[in-house]
Amino acid sequence: MAETQQVRANYSNEEEEESPEPETSRSRRRRFKASNMSFGEMLEMVDILKRADYDGKYGPYPNPNVRKAKIMAEVVKSLHRNFRVRRSKDQLRKRWLDFKRA
């Protein structure tokens, strides 16, 4: 009987010593509200993406992923500057893909 109590005590001490699970990167990531885009915002985004050749139609580019990330960062800054709207790159990338398909 004394052995089982000591085993239980050791087991409960081990649980207390364990550190809590580290937060995942997803929980720390800033989330932006995905509200509807105004027509002006959409025009601004399309204008920048077409001007910068986001889809790479006009030539092979070195490091296309880095190039696309920079262009999308420019779109994020422009929308925030002109419309005071915060949107993530992922949201804008999805909107652009949906817009192209339609």
From TrEMBL:
Domain of life: Eukaryota
Biased composition (Polar residues): 1-12
Region feature (Disordered): 1-34
Name under which the protein is recorded: MADF domain-containing protein
Species for this entry: Aquarana catesbeiana (American bullfrog)
Organism phylogeny: Eukaryota, Metazoa, Chordata, Craniata, Vertebrata
